[in-house]
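Schema walk-through. Below, the input block comes first and the output block second. Nothing else is stored per chain. Lengths vary across the set, and this one has 363 residues.
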Amino acid sequence: MTYTAAVGGPGSPRGNGSDLGDSAGVGGGVYAALDLGTNNCRLLIARPAADGFRVIDAFSRIVRLGEGLSRSGCLSEAAMARTIQALRICAGKIRRRCVTRTRAVATEACRRARNCGAFLERVRGETGLDLEIISNDEEASLAVCGCAPLLDPDMSHALVFDIGGGSTELGWMKAPARGEAGNGAAMPEVGGWHSIPIGVVTLAEHYGGRQVTPRVYDRMIEEVTAALAPFETAHRLCDLVADGRLQMLGTSGTVTTLAGVHQDLRRYDRARVDGCYLDFETVRGISRRIAAMSYQRRAAHPCIGRDRADLVIAGCAILEAVCGTWPVGRLRVADRGLREGILLTMMPRAMKPQVFSASPRRV
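--- output ---
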């Protein structure tokens, strides 16, 4: 698979990474991006291509690193053991693919956990991977970078969101008039980032995830809506919605799951999901249908599965809150994000146009 329209700009990585693999010149090599989140461990290995990069290996596993973190403030032994097992697989792939540059990042669970330092040392000792904890701002920026190829260049503004396990990141940008950027490349100005400490794991642990009544589901939406309000107050994106000048793009397991359910896929198919559109009426209808399912039905669904069955309702509530706050009418689904952003910002600038530049303001 090839991803196009590479980017650079705010939040670009400093270039640190593990010592796995040999050094490479700036003109090529094999790159690895590892994203350790609150719920998932994901790896992408790729080679640079003329139009972006070509993926040569990938890995994804639900590890639930942040399980119980909201109650204890620490990563549990069971969660760390699951995660290290997955990271060993990632390290093996990195070695076998002769990766020349790796960037491995950790997000909300590691940002919050009191015992994160000990966990990172354990990861380094047992896998050879050097995990870097990135800020909410950089996480949002990299997700925007990874999703940029799916943005409609004819729309002047965009809101990009990523529903994670322990937090939800949002970013918005404004594109200049055509012809302002050199060489025909659009250069949107990133206007701001916002992160709320609510993700599918934290929300499910607070309200429950196996059986959720309609009343509880509405309370989940209300809590998330209140957390999103400061971003709307600061940037007044609803004015852009009213003028028809705002597009919306979502990247997360929640939006890809809803797209798969909507398409009635017998098994998840990234080629059919990445880049598709969901109108808000469909989002609400599918979300309510999933929320009404029994845990067993959700676990048996090919696009949900047992690993997500107790988290997907929380994701639906977050998504409904985003759609309710900014009623654009439809959103584009991205099965890409942080890892792709890492890869694009690691690869030599000479091989890609810069399409992002700004000094964003965070709420």
